[in-house]
Fold each of these.
Amino acid sequence: MPAAPTPLPRVHLVESGAPPLRRPDNGTAAKVAFLRRPDAYPDRPAEVRAIETHMSWVFLAGAAVYKLKKPVRYSYLDFSTLPARSRYCSEEIRLNRRLAPGTYLGKQALTRTPEGGFRLGGRGPAVDWLVKMRRLPEERMLDRLIRDGKLESRDLARLATVLTRFYRRARPLDWSPGVYALRLRQSLEANAAALLSSRYGLPAAPIRQVLAAQRRFAAEGAAILEARMAAGRVVDGHGDLRPEHVCLERRPVIIDCLEFNADMRVVDPADELGFLALECERLGDAAAGDALLDFYARLSGDAPPPGLVAFYKSCRACLRAKLAVWHLDDGDQPDPEKWRSLALDYLLLAEKYTACFSPPAGP
């Protein structure tokens, strides 16, 4: 009898076709109010800047950064309990030290004082956990360098060197034949379910054309996708390689990998670098992404077919469009058109990339 097939892992290029799930929380506001105060921190910074994301609160406090995970539950992560937040803080530190050595400084408890207040550290019971990081120079972040017109070729060469070494050392995935291609097809369908939902009001005709082109490539190119897997090119990578996560110091530092879902870190470097190239293009510097892919090909000896890179870019653009419109499910969005406009920008890029699809010719 044939061996039982490997259980199908979760989809990696998308989180889910459904909007996020949430758990009501009444305790975060008090923690955030405390962490906004300069006297909350041991070195008493002159000011604290707080940034809210879907999943976290980030506090820029002098030379350090502290990240507090929100007690939220989505279809692809669960930070809703204190043990889960503690565990994922530890995972964030462990995983990000691969590409950001010396940046992730450790995990700190937020404790309750005898008087009922909060303290960073201390001996009271932990009511939450934070990741402490070294604050990176904002002027050296890749998105900022692109916007300021200060990105240099040598910066990209150094970044490509770091990423090539990372992918070379990363753990390759060993799945049964057909699983990788099947997961990609599932990703396309999850994107389709969200982008074609009537509640977001996106134009259906061009979306259907993009998705049809992606489906054709996934079907006709199944052999090349599986060849990438067989060659050890599908690895445990970063998972969210965007310009705002790249700091081009003398030794490039890359932060904020996806710690909360291992399946979503499963990537082909051609996919992950294509995603970074897509985001560079959206910021106005398509040449930066092209140069990075070229540096990688020369350093690694891995030159993925242009049609495959275009396919990956198109899929990522649809994913980013989906994540943008998911913001519209937040009832308190002050500017819903901002997110719809961003989704349309990504969909235009997805459509552009489909014109670059070509019949796959090999791994």
Amino acid sequence: MAAAGAGRRITTPFRAGSTAAEVVAGLDLSGKRAIVTGGASGIGIETARALAGAGAAVTLAVRNIRQGEEAAQDIRASAGNARVSVAPLELTDPASISSFAAGWDNPLDILVCNAGVMAIQTLTRTESGQEVQFATNHLGHFALAVGLHDALAAAGTARIVSVSSAGHLSSPVIFDDLNYSFREYTPFGAYGQSKTANVLFAVAATSRWAADGITANAVMPGSIPTRLGRHLPAADPKHTTKAAERSERAGTPPRKTPEQGAATSVLLAAHPALEGIGGRYFEDCTEPPIVDRRPESGVGAVARYALDPGNAERLWEVSLELTA
């Protein structure tokens, strides 16, 4: 197993413009079981569609069951695969997470932690007092993965995909004030902290669970017009313009389609090139360089603090306490 920062950077034949369907072309995932959180829309539905199209049985873990059923019906028809189901999951509700995990009774080959919230303008906390972006994007998925550990281990070669973002370059995890009790709240700072946590989770999960045949990697999908960005106009009216300027400086497409945005998730979830690889961060279907300062473009790199094993272990222990 190749862990974070170990050896050469991994590249693949796929690029920023590749689609999820292109990544799984020729792959046979028959007999594999997958869960995609937030699988009813955006890159989640395209991730699920590609996995189902390759033959996997896919469960859409969603908040809105009606929307989930509509998405499942669409995927069944387009993928020609009847094994697409829907289950309720609210990532800020410990009871919902426990119920979902307890109800899963099969080996689990693929867990795509895709659901999330972004750039909520006003500081919002869950009933347990956790800042809602950190709670949704990290803690909920952490609790879900821990609850499904035995099912993942039973698969023998399970993969976890932790959907992060270049937004992680905006903030490390501030362990002494996770919930903005003392520091000034900013929508993108809170989002960045949660996305760094997504990367650190992949590092720690691989370190702890590789012996069980479980590896985890983090992914930056790209800039994609989905419902994830519904809070952006309020948080930063010029966000779209600034994102386009960053993409131009980096030489990357300013916007991806959802099918393109799902490509790296599907690569990490299913492609043979990533077998045994864990604890890493991927963008545009490749592993970007590790940096000690934020690049001018704001994309195309992963912060060293997001791959730091000490940070990863600290976050794991803190997360166990917060989700106990």
Amino acid sequence: MFYPKGLVQKSELEYASRKLTSIEINSTFYGSQKPASFTKWYAATPDDFTFSVKGPMFATHRRVLAEAGDSIERFFASGVLLLQEKLGPINWQLGPEKKFDAGDLADFLALLPRKIAGRAIRHAIEVRHPSFDTPEFPALARRHGVAIVVAGDSRFPQITQDTAPFVYVRIMGTTAKLKNGYSSRDLDAWAARASKWAGDGREVFLYVISGCKKRNPAAALALIERVALGAGPLPR
């Protein structure tokens, strides 16, 4: 069990943020959050903590991505910028049925703001259709400075091209059979990859999702410990 017995729900973020270095906010994918929520999350976490945020499905799960401008604007006006310097990359996750369309995707990436009110905004894009496994896709992402999400240990396309100054990884292979969700060998391998990316001068955002959710915190802690022992920058 990750949280201490008896810990009230409103204190869970404060506790988790002292154990982890970053959390991906998933609720924003399904709907707008109140500005007060972002303010509360900011206040509950340490100064060096980072939140990555899922972009809204209203922008990403549509037939024509180029028509997502209004949804993107509403998202950034919803209060997400209240995370201030703790705001990490925005993960724009496309639907599994969305096929690669170079023109439409280029128009969508052009809609993503690079700076708002003087604050730089970083973006990552997560794709789930095999048609994205083409050289045109990373070339397009690189042109816009957008990271391609590494969907580790999943059935989704495995695209690990360097397209941005940071790396965004979501590993999805935890199992209930193992105390830490992953075998020691697999944890060592992911920690080594994270350290290599960081050694190349790229900030690493690595999240453990899906799989066996109750094991994900243990896997994340095990990865942080391994990277720390290797004297490399901690993945977020």
Amino acid sequence: MKIIFDTDMGPDYDDVGAITLLHTYADEGKAEILATMASTKYEGVAAVLNVLNTYFKRPGIPVGVPKGNALTLRDFQHWTDSLIANYPHTIRTNDEAPDAVSLYRQILSHQPDSSVTIVTVGFLTNIANVLRSLSDSISPLSGMDLVHRKVRNLVSMAGKFPEGSEFNIREDAVSAKFVFENFKNPVLFSGFEIGEKIRCGLPLVRNPGIRNSPVKDVFRISIPQARQDSAGRMSWDETAVLVAINGTHPYYKVQKGAIEINEDGSNRWRRNAGNQGYLLEVQPSSQVQRVIDSLLMHEPAE
């Protein structure tokens, strides 16, 4: 499965879990990672993505960063600084990474029609900007036409269902509203209520056999800094990767319909109104937790 991974790698650290799952599936031959895109542009985000791609033996995966207006939210635990200081990477600053929109257009233009899955676990900033983009030297197609021709589906950790307010939509509600009103291919949401119940990372932190791992370092540094993480970090972003690669069975079923986003960034659901869907639990969240915890301990082949 051809994947473009779009992440706000920084405000939270379930993004690190999500990219770990993605590389694990790539090692198993289930996924081809076409690019890792940052939907935030705090200085260091490109380097952090490059650190993780390098650790998993894929240093050449392209990294895109927004060059226009974008959020600059980052981690309060300073795990990003730790990764940049302690692990190899060749991208040092965001200026060394290409513009996310141009990179999206370049990659999509070279892929077969209806072949790419976009997984978003952050803000919808990049997707909105790609959809708004015009024909250029990369492709004669507008962004809207290019995306709808090349992208098979979008899997997004966003929203709270059947209604509520969630961070990834709320922080850039204008972009989210534009994307979900204009993206015509299938969309699958893993909502806040799904990942909230799944607490992961403690088996990784407690595993003495895993050493020199940026993934372990992130969870080791961050879990003790918040009382709410004492049982493990809530695993929103990991679930999006899980279902994007494996499908929803046997853990979830899908409620069909369409999302509506209000001006304040809150959302509600219209049933049977479109080709979107959100996850509903079928199996206990503890089963998904065991799966994710196991995948988080994956180490790259020597």
